[in-house]
């Protein structure tokens, strides 16, 4: 679960995220996405729902919020790069947004 | 309320915040502070309580969270710098943290 993604997993699991608004972070084995909402209540509502899932997965995002914008970066510190935990949290965030 | 802080207000209202862990942001008329909590639940709990106050004040922070750390930057976009809204939100955040 916390092993870095294999080449096969990158093709099967990461590629669909990259086709859905996630981008590779420069200089790190990480992915990032910027979500835009209607207003702060919608943005923070998303963050709250995502926070509950993050805590449940015991895997937490790096994220920046200003008003209706939420910038998320995902990577697995313990593994030194992207793992299936990041894929799971990214999918969940896309479903919540 | 949304006028930039006067020199007198900076002495009376901003100075106590700068003595309490807030610092001036480089290159902007803004203040910032990094809060450290016990864990993600504590950090996001703080953010949730602060978010309710931010919405109530109709004044929102720029903030970055990773696990138990929350970095906050406050400034008033409409005024192009620090106003009493930032002072109020900073005081409230310190009280909540």
From TrEMBL, chains A, B:
GO biological process terms on file: tetrahydrobiopterin biosynthetic process
Pfam (any one): Pterin_4a
The enzyme's E.C. designation: 4.2.1.96
Cited InterPro entries: PCD_sf, Pterin_deHydtase
GO MF annotation: an example: 4-alpha-hydroxytetrahydrobiopterin dehydratase activity
Keywords in alphabetical order: Lyase
Top-level taxon of the source organism: Bacteria
Family (UniProt): Belongs to the pterin-4-alpha-carbinolamine dehydratase family.
The protein's name: Putative pterin-4-alpha-carbinolamine dehydratase
Source organism of the structure: Rhodovulum marinum
